[in-house]
Design brief:
The chain is mainly beta. The protein has two domains: 187 residues, Immunoglobulin-like; 94 residues, Immunoglobulin-like (Sandwich). It is built from three helices and 19 strands. The N terminus is likely disordered.
Length: 298
């Protein structure tokens, strides 16, 4: 077996995106003592009921939170720790980066603004099974090590080792999980559109202003309740932002610390997620990627 992991921190290759890693499978740690009402419960789910050789599938951790508690997005905000998930899959299985639904904004116990999720969230990845045929009665062991920081009036770290055993297909027939496939589909619709999507709801541009930058969004259809969630590398340079405008135009002012004047040189691109409410009343999101090299000085 190999350990194939998708980490929740914003990538090793870049500081903004989770990446997959492979390392030897270690022995599972003993589970922590159960409590009567844990603030967060985690469950490993997949959209397939049997594993067909070479088949694409989705696998993720569904977090169910007690009222008043939250866990954190890939960029946790002013403080906190992002959810981390290490997928432990059989040899020659592959898994991609974590897929993060559009987050919400909240005030953390230390008074800082944080980004994350309340009530329930599924963080999943797309995978592909080994091409190896299986014997009759053979099962594939799938597992994940999940770690998170649960916060309410105070914060508490927690972790869980989650397992899922799926039979191998000997008939070559794909069989979806009739319970979990719709759940994953529902959460997939809450992912932000990628910045290169042909159906982005806005056009975006950036321009320097004073010590910071301004991101301007022109909406194709009216949008309300616009919020800005920067990726970690962007928020490290621009820790403060101010969002304003109308249902057709949004102005996002990115403000660096007063002592910092080299933002055009230290940040390659502005990256983040814009969350908004569309004309149907649905909360949606879209990624922003705006290179800054054209603004940098000589």
């Amino acid at each position: 077996m190999v350990l194939v992991g998708a980490m929740a921190a914003c990538g090793a290759a870049t500081p903004e995106e989770p990446v997959a890693r492979a390392r030897p499978l270690a022995a599972a740690e003993p589970p922590e003592a159960p409590s009567d009402r844990p603030p967060v419960r985690a469950e490993l789910i997949s959209d397939i009921a049997i594993v067909q050789p070479g088949d694409a599938f989705r696998i993720g951790v569904l977090f169910t939170l007690e009222p008043g508690w939250h866990v954190h997005w890939a960029n946790p905000g002013g403080s906190g720790e992002p959810v981390a998930i290490d997928f432990r899959l059989p040899e020659r299985f592959e898994v991609g980066p974590l897929q993060w639904p559009v987050p919400v904004r909240f005030t953390q116990p230390d008074g800082r603004v944080g980004y994350g999720y309340r009530d329930e969230v599924l963080i999943y990845a797309e995978g592909r099974a080994s091409n190896r045929d299986v014997d009759d009665g053979e099962t594939w062991p799938l597992a994940a090590e999940a770690r998170w920081l649960a916060c309410a009036a105070e914060c508490a770290p927690d972790r869980a080792t989650l397992t899922l055993a799926l039979p191998g297909s000997i008939s070559g027939t794909r069989l979806v999980d009739l319970v979990n496939a719709p759940r994953i589909d529902a959460w997939a619709r809450r992912l932000p559109l990628p910045s290169g999507s042909a159906v982005l709801p806005f056009t975006a541009a950036s321009a320097p202003e004073a010590a910071g930058f301004v991101v301007s969004l022109s909406w194709r259809t009216p949008a309300a309740g616009v919020e800005w969630f920067p990726f970690e590398a962007t928020s490290a340079v621009f820790p403060t932002s101010d969002v304003g405008g109308s249902t057709r135009r949004t102005r996002i002012a990115l403000i660096p610390p007063a002592s910092r004047t080299d933002t055009g040189r230290t940040l390659a691109a502005i990256r983040g997620v814009v969350a908004y409410t569309d004309v149907a009343g649905e909360r949606r999101g879209a990624e922003v990627f705006l290179p800054l090299d054209r603004h940098a000085g000589p």
